[in-house]
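Question:
Write out your own:
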Amino acid sequence: MNVGFRIPTNLDAEQAERAFDLRQYLNFVWRNWLFIVAVTAVAFLIGIVNLVRAVPLYTASTPRARRGAFDFDLLGRLRGG
């Protein structure tokens, strides 16, 4: 029982315009291109510095060569050579 709720009878209210205006966005980019490039360059520079200074968490190494593992001269040794 929605006592305090009334259905609106006047639907002539202005609707907000939601059209995509490409010119408006291009104008913003045109006016602020230097700021956009500067922020992008600073973010890129911070990323590069972080990448260079980061301590590697994992390093790869190969196990010592074992007899028979990836041994391409196995056939020669079996023949006695």
User: Anything to note?
Assistant: The chain is about 45% helix and 0% strand. Residues 20-54 form one domain.
